[in-house]
């Protein structure tokens, strides 16, 4: 039996743009952590309230949460050294950032995740 050896949590908060002279983008608001507690909390919450599926990208199913402007996805992957990675993604949207694309954000995050996975696999 293998254990979860790595936990990756991504959170993107699409910001309210308050100063048009100094615009900010979602790229400036990507949070990354490796907290087991956050990962487990998200799994528990999303299991109870799974939202509805809006699209798939590169093997990930992305769902829109019910009752909040948030999108989420999670997955586990097996490593060459018999470890496992659990990854969660959460994107917060708001009315001021309707021009931001959840698909674009997820593609960026998934690419980053795959780069991290390749580093783990090459270290094995």
Structural account:
The two termini are 18 Å apart. The protein has a 6-stranded mixed sheet, with helices on both faces. The radius of gyration is 15 Å and the shape is globular. It has 124 residues and is of the alpha+beta class. 16% of the residues are buried. The chain has helices at residues 36-48, 102-123, and strands at 4-13, 30-33, 52-57, 60-64, 70-78, 84-92. It has 2 helices and 6 strands. Helix content is 28%, strand content 35%. The chain has one domain (4-123).
List keywords for this structure.
single chain; Cytoplasmic protein; 28% helix; 6 strands; 2 helices; alpha+beta; 35% strand; 124 residues
Principal-axes shape call = globular
Sheet bearing the most strands, described? Answer: 6 strands, mixed
Number of continuous helical runs? 2
| Lateral arrangement of strands in the main beta sheet | 2-1-6-5-4-3
Structural class: alpha+beta
Q: Write the element-wise H/E pattern from the N-terminal end onward.
A: EEHEEEEH
Strand content: 25-35%
**Average pLDDT level:** 86
Beginning-to-end CA distance, first to last residue = 18 Å
